[in-house]
Amino acid sequence: MKQRFPSPQFAICVNNKGYAASLETRKVYQVLPDPGAARHRLVRIVDESGEDYLYPLEHFAPIRLPQVLAQAFAWQPNLSAQPLLEPTMSCRQVES
To answer: Of 10, 44, 62, 94, which residue has the fewest beta carbons closer than 10 angstroms?
Structure first.
């Protein structure tokens, strides 16, 4: 049976044998389309740094995420430079 990844493309790692330093089981990864890799039963995975690497297809299961989650999980090159939370109001010291 041919395994296909839905669009937007994400997969969960189900086996990290041989790649324990690089892959975490039960973790969601972004998948980049790579027909050449697919012909060799490999999948191109994006890691936290934004780099992509080839891994055996059988280490992953494709998943479909709701659009809001797909946007949140998609790697963004300048994400590390962005603040996690925007301040909504300023704090003032209360004098007694």
So the answer is: 94
Is the overall model pTM greater than 0.70, yes or no?
Answer: no
- Given 2.30.30, 2.60.40, 3.40.50, 1.10.1060, which CATH number is that of 10-74? 2.30.30
Backbone angles phi, psi at 70, to 5 degrees: -60, -40
Report whether 40 contacts 15 (CB < 8 A): no
Question: Per DSSP, which regions of 1-96 are E strands?
Answer: 10-13, 28-32, 42-46, 52-56, 60-63
Per-residue confidence at 69, pLDDT binned at 50, 70, 90? confident
Q: Does residue 84 register a pLDDT over 60?
A: no
Q: 13-21, long-range: CB within 8 Å, 24+ apart, which pairs? A: 13/59, 13/60, 14/59, 14/60, 14/61, 15/58, 15/59, 16/59, 17/59, 19/55, 19/59
